[in-house]
Each structure stands twice: as structure tokens, then as C-alpha cells.
Amino acid sequence: MEVKQLFQFLLVALLFSLGGCSTTKLFQDPTSTSSPMVNKLENFPPPERKVDIAVYKFVDQTGQRKPIDAGASFSMAVTQGASTWLVQALKSAGKGEWFTVVERMQLDELLKERQIIRNTRTTYDGESAKKVRPLTFAGVFVAGGIVGYDSNIETGGVGARYLGVGPQVEYRRDMVSVGLRLISVQTGEVLLAVSSQKTILSAKLAINVFTFLDMGTKLLEVEAGVTENESTSYAVRKAIEHCVIQVIEEGIKEELWKFK
């Protein structure tokens, strides 16, 4: 077989191998709504009465930068929008039957908008102006945040070659930790404190060809690979959802609320 024909054969085989590997997802699709965590959170039976709850901030407390192979990164290691995931998890608990989430993260904007409504009504309707409905106050609020991000807590790989041709697989495991507290507005008592961890996996698949042709006078070398990284934001979201599940379950044990 000539060198050109052998190169074409190996290249086609390599592409087919990578194509077959890329069709299998290493990790769960972040857009999936059928994960066990989501199903468990949404399928909770409703409580006797909905709980009014406030979320002021739920932020990254690690201060860590995104790890890179060389140099410094200005990007944060984890999402800065964890509060959004927390509000969404609270709203989806029991298909919206568990918590009435009141807005506190954009409180300044909310108060300004209410002031505009009052001024406008007073200007046009005078003393007979319709009053703005009072804000809903919360009986409890949640505090906490992303408390840890550990990178490269486990790394490894395996590879093999036969006659200069063979695959290689590498992986890396990171972990994100989330902590959440439920606090009483009336007394300031910490009613519940829970935490959750989620593993973040990264994997790399490569195929190498390194062989001599024509009695060692010519060298053929081909290298290709594919890398898949589990979304850090998705891991934070799952850890937050697990914390909300723990809050509901621990609240039942502590008799803070009851199923209907």
C-alpha cells in the first residue's frame, strides 16, 4: 500500500472513530428537565399553606478564578448568578405550591417604581387616588452562597498503543459546594442549615497514529481528539436544587411545616 493510500485509510478510520465517540454524551444535557433532581423537587406534595420567603443575595463566596493551564484568568471559577437559580428552584418546588418568593434582590428598583405609581396617581386623581397595594412581607429568608470550588481533586487517564496506533483517555474531577440557611424574620434564629456538593467532570478522548513507513524512511503521525467539560453553572444549579430539597425535608422533620 502506498503512503498516500495508507494515510487516507487511517484518516477515514480516525474520523469514524471520533464520530462514534462524539455521539455519546459523557454528561447529562444541562437543558434537560427530566433529571431525577428536578422531578423530585417538582413532585413534592403541597404544604398546608404556602411559605412566604425572601432571597436577598446568594453569591459566590469563594473568590476563586477560573483555572487555566498557563497565565492568569480574570473570569470567576463559578457563576455569579446563583441567586437566579435559587429563586427558580424555590418557585418550582411542588410545581409552585410550596413557596411564595418575594422580590428583594431588586428592592431599590421596586420601591422606585411604586413611588412613580403613587406620584402619578396623586397627580391625576388627587386625594381620591387609589393606593398602591402593600408589599408582601416574608416570614423567613434564605442566606448563604457558593462556599467552595475545588479543582483537580482527582485526575487520571489511560492509554494504549499497538504498532504506533492507539487511543488515550484523560479525565479531571472538580467539586463545587453550596451552603444555605433558613432564617426567621421575627427572631433572627437560624431554623435550618444545609449544604450540598456536586462533582464537575471533564474528559478528553484522543487517538494517536505514530508509525514509520517504507523501511523507516518516512514517518506518518496523526493526532486528533475531543474534550467535553461538564458545565459549572449546571453543577451549581443542581447543588442548589438539592439544598432546597433538603430544606423541605428537614422542615418536615422539625415541624416547621406539614404536607397538606
Give the SSE layout.
Layout: H1 3-22, H2 36-42, E1 51-55, E2 59-60, H3 82-92, E3 99-103, H4 107-125, E4 140-159, E5 165-184, E6 190-213, E7 218-229, H5 232-253
Helix pairs in contact: 2-5, 3-5
Summarize it:
The chain has 260 residues and is of the alpha/beta class.
Helix content: 25-40%
Poorly predicted ranges (pLDDT <50, ≥5 residues)? 6-12, 14-34
| Total helical elements | 5
Structural class: alpha/beta
Number of strands: 7
Radius of gyration: 27 Å
Strand content: 25-35%
Task: Report the order of strands and helices.
Answer: HHEEHEHEEEEH
Mean pLDDT: 76
Largest sheet: 7 strands, mixed
What is the CA–CA distance across the termini? 76 Å
Q: How would the global form be characterised?
A: elongated
Protein traits:
alpha/beta, 30% helix, elongated, 7 strands, 7-stranded mixed beta sheet, 260 residues, 5 helices
Description:
- This protein is α/β, with parallel strands linked by helices and 260 residues long.
- The protein contains five helices and seven strands, in the order H-H-E-E-H-E-H-E-E-E-E-H.
- It has helices at 3-22, 36-42, 82-92, 107-125, 232-253; strands at residues 51-55, 59-60, 99-103, 140-159, 165-184, 190-213, 218-229.
- Strands 1, 2, 3, 4, 5, 6 and 7 form a seven-stranded mixed beta sheet that branches.
- Helix 3 (82-92) crosses helix 5.
- The longest helix is centred in the C-terminal third of the chain and has 22 residues, at 232-253.
- It is elongated, with a radius of gyration of 27 Å.
- It starts with a helix and ends in a 7-residue tail after the last helix.
- Residues 6-12 and 14-34 have low confidence and may be disordered.
